[in-house]
Design a protein that fits this description.
Radius of gyration: 23 Å
Largest sheet: 5 strands, mixed
Mean pLDDT: 86
Shape: globular
Length: 500
């Protein structure tokens, strides 16, 4: 019976899978090809619908935007992917990503209200302060000859520190001074999270029983889980002891207070682990890609700084002024489009269905994948070449893009609950960095990009110079004059796009 799981079947095109490994060897997955690169190549070969076997698991990849919209708007047919339920339940079975039905509704009713914009914008100063700590570290280690090659780790530490304070009211100390004698101990959480994240792709590719054995008996896995859970127990204890009297009042504004007051202990632990991993990986990956991409496109960096001058944000960044930074919104959107944080999302059918555009017959139990990268790089859905990094597209020809062509955080009822917080964090961090520094390309041998896969898509090779502004009063004056000439036109176009 096991052979039926590795047999190519049905009229949907694709490559016949190999026993245990599916299409992973055929697609050069083990030679470093990332899932987005693989799915892009398969799309060129097989078109809008094809099968792909990730190890023993068969997915139907849906690339036509009409079919994608159909999947996301028929939640009664396309529910959370079974692979999420199966694989994440190996370690953390009670988190939002790995539950369905009434349990999902109960967790969602507790968590979703806390990720509305009005619940977190008051953390503006907190994000500024954490970013300033990173800037201070860079000042101590930067000269005109220093190439920073640990940007990904620095982004991880920054985002983890911010989320620890916002979500759990706890200082994880990941930005403490490197001269501290206990720095290795304080950064053990980031190392443990990285260990867990690096194993996710392995766990997904393995049959469940083998994945369970790996998670249970791997020393590194057990050590990482022990470290993460130790920090979580500390945070829970801190919340219960220090803030016990105010938990009831704070449950409507604080994630950890709401979790502790509303869920069972094992549910609290699993949700906190899931949020640490998601907050640690997705936002920090986009921040790292931002630094890499603007180091390669200095004209974009100049325009960001020009907008800071135009909006009086170069010296005095405030929440109200942050909202006025239109071009910065475009840059963040373009980073998210150019390299979406995740490969895609998966839905499993609860009944038979037929996709409207490709007329593909699907059956109950089939798993479909929506590939974010393919949609964001499909020339059918973008007026300006999607292979070009060009933030201005969101102000001009591509301001009316199809809503399902750009879904970096997913779509439908199971889309990322923290996407508004992630965008807010990114905008505050990036605006603060651009007030003080310029990132320069570290060279073709070091700053080559490439994909490194964990839970999110990370730049594999990144190396940049970090120049601090010697005199910010005279920063980019010529660019400011050029910016003013087009600013009013671009703002009008942007507002029109937001009104669509």
């Amino acid at each position: 019976m096991i052979f039926k799981y590795f047999t190519f079947h049905g009229p949907i095109p694709g490559l016949p899978p190999q026993f245990l490994f599916g299409n992973l060897f055929q697609s050069d997955f083990f030679n470093g090809n990332s899932p987005p690169q693989i799915l892009s190549t398969f799309k060129k070969c097989f078109g809008d619908i094809f099968q792909f076997w990730f190890g023993p698991y068969r997915f139907i990849i849906v690339n036509n935007i009409i079919d994608v919209e159909h999947v996301f708007t028929h939640r009664n047919i396309y529910d959370q992917g079974d692979i999420f339920i199966e694989k994440f339940s190996v370690s953390y079975s009670q988190s939002l990503i790995s539950i369905k039905g009434d349990q999902f509704k109960r967790h969602a009713s507790i968590i979703l209200p806390l990720f509305r914009r009005n619940k977190f914008v008051h953390n503006f100063d907190l994000i500024i302060n954490c970013t300033d700590k990173l800037l201070t570290k860079w000042r101590k280690t930067t000269d005109h000859k220093t190439i920073h090659i640990d940007i990904v780790n620095q982004c991880h530490n920054l985002v983890l520190a911010i989320f620890g304070l916002i979500g759990f009211n706890y200082d994880l100390e990941t930005l403490d001074d490197d001269d501290d004698d206990n720095i290795s101990e304080k950064n053990e959480l980031t190392q443990a999270l990285r260990t867990i994240i690096n194993s996710i792709m392995k766990i997904i590719a393995l049959p469940k029983i083998i994945a369970k054995i790996y998670v249970t008996f791997s020393y590194r896995q057990r050590q990482a889980r022990t470290i993460i859970e130790r920090y979580i127990y500390r945070m829970i204890e801190y919340e219960q002891v220090i803030n016990f009297k105010s938990i009831k009042q704070r449950k409507h504004t604080s994630l950890i207070a709401s979790l502790v007051d509303s869920l069972e202990k094992n549910e609290v632990i699993d949700e906190m682990v899931a949020f640490l991993i998601a907050g640690f990986e997705s936002t920090s990956s986009t921040l790292a890609w931002f630094i890499h991409l603007i180091s390669k496109h200095p004209q974009v960096q100049q325009k960001i700084k020009a907008e800071l001058i135009a909006k009086d944000c170069l010296h005095d960044l405030s929440l109200d002024r942050l909202h006025s930074l239109v071009y910065l919104n475009c840059v963040i959107d373009e980073v998210l489009r150019y390299i979406p944080p995740a490969t895609g999302t998966i839905r499993t059918l609860t009944m038979n269905d037929r996709l409207p555009a490709t007329n593909t017959q699907l059956f109950k139990g089939d798993s479909v994948m929506i590939p974010f990268y393919n949609l964001a790089h499909d020339s059918r859905y973008w007026s300006i070449d999607p292979e070009i990094f060009y933030p201005e597209r969101f102000l001009t020809e591509d301001k009316n893009y199809h809503p399902y062509a750009f879904i970096p955080f997913g779509g439908g009822h199971r889309q990322c609950v923290g996407q508004d917080l992630a965008r807010f964090e990114l905008k505050v961090i990036v605006a603060r960095l651009m007030q003080y520094v310029t990132f320069r390309d570290g060279g073709s041998q070091i700053n080559t990009g490439g994909h490194s896969m964990g839970l999110a898509i990370l730049p594999k090779h990144i190396g940049v110079f970090i120049d601090f502004e010697s005199s910010r009063k005279n920063t980019q004056v010529s660019d400011y004059e050029n910016f003013k000439k087009t600013y009013s036109i671009e703002i009008t176009l942007w507002n029109d796009a937001n009104d669509r």
